[in-house]
Each structure stands twice: as C-alpha cells, then as structure tokens.
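Quick question, first post here. What does this chain look like in 3D?
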Amino acid sequence: MSAVTLSCLPLDPVRPAAYPCWMKLFCVLLLSLSLFLPATAADKSPNIVLILTDDHGWTQLSELMDPDFPKSKSEYLESPNINRLIAGGMRFTSGYSPAPLCTPTRRSILCGTSAARSGTEFKSPWVPADHLTIPKALKQANPDYRCAHFGKWGEQMISTPEQCGYDASHGETGNNTGGMPNSLGVKGGHGDGPPHFINNEDPKLSRKISDSTIDFMKKQVNAGNPFYVQASYYAQHLSVVCSDKALKKYESKGTPDRGYTQAWAGMLDELDQQIGRILDSIENLDIEKDTHVFFTADNGGRGTIPGGDSQGKAPNYPLTGAKHTLFEGGVRVPFIAMGPGVSAGSVSRVPVVGYDFLPTFYSLAGGTDELEAEVDGVSFVAAMKNPKLEMIKRPQRGLIFHRPGRFESAIRDGNFKLRLDWNNKAEVIDRQLYLVGQNPIEDGNDRLANHPEKAAALEKRLLAYLKSVNAEKAVPRKPKKRKK
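> Answer (accepted):
Ran it through. Tokens below.
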C-alpha cells in the first residue's frame, strides 16, 4: 500500500460501536490520505541493468571468480570496475552462458529458454517476437516498465528489439557493427589482417553503448519509470581494437600471463572503464537502493587470440576448452549480481545460467503469474538473498547444454556435469562425467568409472529433455572447401 499502515489501529469490524465516533472518523481520514501518498521503496518495482560482454572467459578478470580457486583470475589483466560489482554484490562461482556461441545465447537470455529449445546455431526457426521475452515479462509484471537494448543484438535473430518489446535500441546490430576485419578495411578473416587495430575515438563502440545506457537511465529516472536496460558490449569479440593509450599501458606491463595479447588486455581495460561509467551514473542518480545490476558473458573466451602466444598458457587457462565447445572453457563465464538484498562481497555456489535471467527479473519486478511452460529458466532471487543456499529447484533438474553442430551435449546437476559425444547418426558414442563444483578443471578428471549410476541417470534425463523440445540432432559435417 503506502507509507501509512493501519495495522496498529485495533478496529473491530464486527463490533464497530465498540469504538468512539472520533476514532472511526480518524481512521477513515487516514485511509483516504494513504491512497494519495507515494509508495515506499519496498513497494517500487526495481530498475534492472544487465551488462553482457562478448567472448569473455571465466578467468579473464583481475578478481577471483571463485575465492577458493586461486587460478580463477588473471594477474595481468585489470578490471577494477567489474571488481566493484564483485565487492558490492554476489559472485556466482558456477555461472554459465546458455551456449558456447553468441546468437544462441542471446536468444536464450531474451526468451528464458535453453539453446536446445530455441536454437543452437546462428540460424534457427525460433522467432523471438512470437514468444515471451524479458521486456514483455517485465511489462506483464508492471506496465510502467520502460526497456532498452544497446549494443550487439545478434546474428540472424529474425526479430527486431522493438518487436520483442524494447522501447529503445541500436537496432539489429551484429559482429560487423562492433568491428570485424571486413568492417575495418581488411578482406578475409582475422588471420588476414594485423593482430590488432587502433581506434582512439571509441574502440569497439564501448563508449557509445555506455552513453546510450546512461542517457536512457536518466530519462526514465526523470520520468519516474522503473526501467530495464541491457548493455551488450562488442568487446571482447574479435577483432581486437584498442586505443594507443591502452596499448602503451599494457606494453609497459610486459608479457601477458595467458595467451592473449597486450592489445586484447587494453581492449578489456577500456571496456571496464565504460562499465564503470554506468556504475557511477547509478550512484550519481541516487538509485542504488532501487537498482539491480547483473554482469555476465555470452560465452567463454576464445581458444586463441591473434598475435597471442600459442605455446604458453591458453587464454582460458586453467579451464578445458574454449568458445564453441561445451567444456567449461566454452560455457563457464563471469556471473555477478548486485543490488537491494544482496550482501556485499557474498559468494553463491548454486549453478545458474543465462536463461535464468527472465524469470529472475520477472520475480524482482513483482510478477506473480505463472510463466509459460516453454521458459526453461528459474528465478535465482532466493540464492541472491541467501549465500548459504545450496540449490534451486528446476523442472529439468539441471542446466542443459546442446551443440549438435559440434556433436556435443551436456547437463550440469549439482557438482556433477555429464558431457556426451554424438556421431552423425545421432548416436551417443562417448560420455564423460566430471565433478566441477570445487575443481572446474576437466582435463584428466573423468569420474565416469567411479559413478556409472549417476552418469546413466543424468544421460537419461538429458536425452528425455532433448526429445521433449524436439532439439536439433547431430548431422554429418560438410567438408570445408579448400582455398585454391
């Protein structure tokens, strides 16, 4: 209701004559006045900001993603503003992207669906505008929400941001918008151009994305609207683009501690600065108590970086695999939440995934109606409020991953992760079982022989889910054409 409460007044509706007339009149006046008073902070629908980076690995920050795992950060990279989120909120040690590739993840986050349901590659028959989306869900909870998406939308998403319920956007943007070789004057792929490009105006358009985000927040605060804004940065996707200033800074720091380059580190530094501007604006607008900020990446880091040391530690070290694969290096990503009710510096070990954002945001917005059955995600609000929580219930009883184009599927349940390999006849030909809760390194740690019953149960559950959503099947690989 409002700041005025009537619970302290002992009126008896059965025996109204038991109270003096002046008291009854006083209560009526109080009740009438309360209808015109502004809502308290607790009654407001909160603002929500989602920051999404690109090709950004779990260990590619200067703060530990798991305080009990010393290798879960870089000693070379600098990310002080992302670290502010960690210090002021909760880091999820087992945070995942829905897919190891950008567009499937973006569809998945938008609609709250696993990639197995809404498409595992760039192309998919799934039309986001025909389904529930984050902005639609928020407006279902509270029609006053205003929603915006700035930065990378995705490749072949079919629907525009506005068709999906957004009130403002940069449009149908993709990798070329944020800088690919052919958009930077180089014909061919990343190996055909220089290892990095210099842009002293706005590398990777990170400033533009932050400018738009900040301007949108200001307008909604002035208008008194609760808002949702997604800032989808192009960094750290290739091509590597940074300023001269950033490059010189990291050249002075010497050799990177993993297989990325000094320019790549500079690109991350400049991305971090722009994220800092959003955090500063939230403070300057005095809306910290009403605003939740979430941070994650669309998939894990790349296996190689142009110009990087291929003989040293991999960019995702010590995780196995990289972008495109369902090993931890491909889908385990930074995952942070900060806002009202979240303890500063807290840690959650509950496995969460990007398709959980839709139901989580809906819950934060005050939504109470049951969501569509096709929404695979679940709200992790309870985990945000209770760092000791060990699990959240899921209909699928696990996180689902599927990439038939790479002949892989996986399920994470508790600390266990089962990974399947397929052949081109859609038959499972190999399986591995890992315990990735406390030790995320998969190399040499297959536990299938120790837990055959667990592996069999997880495989049965995973295959049943894939069948229930009519997931794509593994198909024969087309031979690549050789360059003449």
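The radius of gyration is 24 Å.
The CA atoms of residues 182 and 340 lie 44 Å apart.
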